[in-house]
Design brief:
The chain is an alpha+beta fold and 541 residues long. It has 12 helices and 32 strands. The chain has an 8-stranded mixed sheet, with helices on both faces. It has a 4-stranded antiparallel sheet with strand order 9-32-31-30, with no helix packed on it. The protein has a 4-stranded antiparallel sheet with strand order 10-11-12-13, with no helix packed on it. β26 and β27 form a beta hairpin. α4 runs antiparallel to α5 and α4 packs antiparallel against α8.
């Protein structure tokens, strides 16, 4: 246990674990640093961050200098932030989320990001009346030093059955509750306010990126509250954690927090035009169009050129036997033999004389390659096609009429192919038959102004798509609901999930348009960026 001294001289006890950017966990009512989900959550987050789990004043190993004021608790958080180096991310649960909100308002840039789970505000008129009645009763009970009755009153408010409360009065934990019962007034009378309503005007002054969360199986009003808060904050996003109650599962929560708190990392720079990332044999493989190279890089940033090809190596994937396939512009589909030589894998000239683009090889060894259907850039637009190369080497067209076909993925069951139509501003799905044929074409997601390029699929059946003109990478659910947006300072050409647990998102970013780069003699602005995300990659590629 460590201590830090707050501005008014109060000692604040805390535990510290992990390595990386600082995250401070702010517990809710009747919780101390050892008596809530904080220790478990801290262990999960410690893989990515330095986590501070502390006793709020009046609890555990922290002091309780009188008189109490919300400002003093904000100063406690500030002392922890200063101890952590001057800046930190905040996560608050329940009324701890309300305190974290106050800290984000008052501490400015010291709070870099704010995450809140189910701050218990409620704008319902009857709920506000009940809240006033509760806080009056709580104040009277604490004034009479009836701490056990104050705890029971709070538990009754949260919906705990009376017989269960009576049983808990005889449990070993009850004296712990009674010891910190006065802090109920700190949370409920001082922080949450007179009527417990959503502080929309105050929330509007939060200028840092904020994640507002609720549980999909929690109290109904929690969603309304989370939505109101997220709408009030200028840089907030709303996220519902499915199947979660107010007592949120630490593993589910940790994934959401890692997703939100993680920052983009630069893995590699100096590329002419990076494209077609693939995670294979514990390394990232990709094409550098302008350099005519297929490159691999490990998670430490060590890279090497695997093969050079005579024209743009638009896209790569592997046959089940481990041999590399390369879609090489007008040269068609090449195969890299185990001795390193390049040979023609399939002759595609009978299907189109326009440039070939993306490839995906499914779990049965079928290779799908798409053709944009016109000369790009500069040619008059025409729709493109998807071709199939079967394991026996035969080729045939399996779809047409697609508007600038780009990234493709195949679901883990080999049943569905999803295609990015860049000029169609949509993701399109096809059913895959046993012989590899495509049918039942349908819109998987309209992207509302998005221009999808490279794509990848995750275990929650969401698709990440790269978007060049909008300079972003976006995660969408079937139907088009946007789950997450990663904004970049340059065009995002492709994305891929990989890494140790398949939860690292690799982004290929480059300035666009830069014609000189395509020839390899311009400024090399291409980058490989990484970000930890909540759901692992699945399917093909």
């Amino acid at each position: 246990m460590n201590t830090v001294t707050s501005k008014d001289g109060t000692k604040i006890g805390y535990d510290k674990i992990g390595r990386g950017p600082a995250v401070i966990l702010v517990a809710g009512a009747l919780c101390s640093r050892s008596f809530w989900s904080g220790p478990e959550l801290a262990k999960l987050l410690a893989l990515h961050f330095t986590v501070y789990n502390y006793d709020r004043r009046g609890r555990g190993d922290s002091g309780d200098t009188k008189p109490y004021a919300v400002e003093r608790e904000v100063e406690d958080i500030e002392a922890l932030i200063d101890e952590a180096g001057g800046a930190a991310y905040l996560y608050g649960h329940s009324s701890g989320a309300s305190l974290a909100l106050e800290a984000a308002i008052k501490l400015g840039g010291k709070v870099e990001k704010l995450a809140m789970y189910e701050a218990p505000y409620n704008d319902d008129d009857e709920a506000k009346r009940a809240w006033k009645e509760y806080t009056n009763q709580l104040t009277n009970l604490l004034a009479a030093n009836r701490r056990g009755d104050a705890v029971a009153l709070f538990m009754k408010l949260t919906g705990t059955p009376v017989d269960q409360i009576e049983g808990m009065r005889h449990a070993p934990v009850w004296p712990v509750f009674e010891a910190i019962a006065p802090t109920l007034a700190y949370d409920h009378c001082a922080i949450l306010g007179e009527d417990g309503s959503v502080p929309s005007k105050r929330a509007a002054s939060v200028i840092v990126p904020t994640l507002v969360m609720n549980g999909g199986a929690s109290y109904a009003f929690m969603y309304d509250t989370a939505r109101s808060l997220s709408k009030a904050m200028p840089h907030a996003q709303l996220r519902t954690l499915e199947d979660q109650t107010h007592d949120v599962d630490s593993k589910v929560l940790a994934l959401a927090l890692v997703d939100f708190f993680s920052e983009l990392q630069t893995l590699m720079t100096g590329l002419v035009m990076g494209e077609s990332p693939r995670w294979h044999d514990d390394r990232l493989w990709f094409s550098d169009w302008g350099a005519h190279e297929v490159i691999v890089v490990d998670l430490a940033g060590k890279s090497e050129v695997i093969v050079r090809v005579p024209s743009f190596p638009f896209c790569i994937d592997w046959l089940p036997d481990g041999r590399l396939l390369i879609v090489s512009g007008r040269d068609g589909l090449l195969r890299r033999e185990l001795d390193g030589s390049l040979v023609t894998h399939a002759d595609l000239t009978s299907l189109s004389d326009h440039p070939w683009n993306e490839i995906v090889v499914d779990g049965r060894g079928n290779a799908y390659i798409n053709n944009i259907g016109f000369d790009f850039p500069g040619g008059e637009f025409a729709t493109g096609i998807i071709a199939l190369v079967t394991p026996d080497g035969s080729t045939r067209q399996v779809a047409d009429g697609v508007a600038f076909p780009n990234g493709m993925v195949v679901t883990p069951d080999n049943a569905t192919l999803i295609l990015a139509e860049s000029y169609g501003k949509r993701l399109t799905a096809f059913d895959i038959a046993a012989d590899g044929s495509l049918s039942n074409r349908r819109v998987w997601a309209d992207l509302d102004g998005g221009f999808p390029d490279g794509i990848c699929l995750d275990a929650e059946n969401a698709v990440w798509y790269a978007d060049v003109p909008n300079k972003r990478c976006v995660r969408v659910r079937e139907g088009g609901e946007v789950l997450q947006t990663i904004d970049l300072d340059r065009g995002c050409f492709a994305c891929m999930l990989g890494g140790v647990d398949n939860r690292t998102l690799f982004l290929m970013a480059n300035e666009w348009p830069v014609p000189a780069n395509m020839a390899g003699d311009g400024v090399r602005t291409g980058q490989v960026l990484t970000l930890e995300v909540p759901a692992p990659g699945v399917g093909w590629p």
